[in-house]
Amino acid sequence: MSVLLKNVINCIWHAFDSLQNKDLVHKSKLKVLTANIGTLLDLYGVEKGLDHFKSSQELSFDEFRYYLQHEVFSSLPKTVTLPVIREYEKKISEVCWLVCRKSLISRDKPIFDDESVFKLFRIYCLLADLVQDADEPAHYVVVLQPSEAGIVAEQLVLCLGLRWDTGDWEALGSSIGQFKWAAFLAVLEAKYCDQQLHSKALVEAVDEIYDVFIEDIIKKGYLYKRGYLLPTMREYWCVLQPCALTYYKSSSQKEQCGRIAIDEYCSVEASAGEGRIQKFQVITPERTYEFGTQDHKSRLQWISAVRQATALSGGVESFQRRARAYRRGAGARREQEVREARMRLQHEVRARLAAEAQAQELAEMAQQDNKKLEELKTTQTELEKLLQEEIQAKRDEEIVRALQARVLAEEWERREELERLQEEQHKMLEEERLKRKKFEMLQAEKETQFREAEKRLKELELEKQRLDEQLKAAQEKISKTELTAQALHVHLRDMGPGFRNGERARRAISFVPTTKSSSDTLIDVRAVRHLKVISQDQKL
Fold it and tell me: Hey, what CATH topology would domain 219-317 get?
């Protein structure tokens, strides 16, 4: 049955978590847990299928849950009453608690006894959710929402006779976030259960909230009941649940005196009282039961509680599970309403900002219009003063319109003129750009020529230096040759006129040195010419 597995899955996860090693549990351990669960459900041998389920010797929680759903809980009858389901839940929770008890009750300063911790554990599993871990999607964790934990804490505090601070819990819940079992138990013990409180008070408070959340007790208290054989009104301790109204001899609930089945076919009505007893009747298909209270207010409360039990008697879901689902739905609806309200508020804010911006624009436009209006009024006044003596009031308007038309025409003309000037300016800029480009090309060409001229000038300077050196060398040789010629001339003159011309020429020629360079050849030619001139002078 999927409903039963859904109700006990949190308890089974805690048992699995206490056995696991790196998110896996060996089949041998799971066979023991499965065998105990099957025995509680009157199913025997359901653990044997684990040997052939999957090829590995270890199973993850998803695989174990799949096996329980299809091999164990699917064998249960589809139609099971709520009391039977509640009894199955209690037995399975006890088995799972035996498996995980050691790891869940270990803490430094315990305040609740082990039995109270087990009852709180069942309440926690009832209201908590099995979710995937955000860091490891393959790993599951059971967490309790702060709102649900606040309901349990508030009931416990009120049962202890203490004052509940909603703001303090909201601050604590926002700081902790989702409650795991250890954090939930630590908060209840450290913050709301002082060590000075009597242990019996703590046990009674836990029993009270256990009756509310697990046993689905809608109301309990003393009622007068008319007997079936003896028509006297006797006082009993009555406990009302969605499926039954049970009455005991005392509030210890050890000796049950009777049980009235409550279903959708039952009804409750007020009846005439006897003295101080205020009566009401519980009408079932089998018979009518008559009860009584000591005051009218208590009677109204019991009538309302029985009607509520009648309305909740159908189905296989307990009252607290339906209430939790209703709270979740209400919370989702509230969140949706909050989101819609935020969206509407944002839309209204945007609309208001847009309206303010539009109003500001209109105000600016109105201010500009007022300025223009003042200017127009001033102009109109001046024009009226100027034209008042010459023309009539009717022509004033025509002249103003003509002036406005002319101003508009002039404005268009000026705009056209400005566009024309702008086009001419663009053309001039384009021409200037082309000229600049040509100038840059010409400048680049001139720079190239200038560099070539500089290079040529450097070459010519080097050539000039080389020729200057050659000229200087030639001049030195010429000066040497002239000195030689002078010496020769002196020598010939000293020898006298009797010396023969041929002998002189040979000596002169033999005296002149010969070289292989062009400058030396030039010197030799000049020397020869000089000697010829000398010889001609001698002949003369």
Answer: PH-domain like (2.30.29)
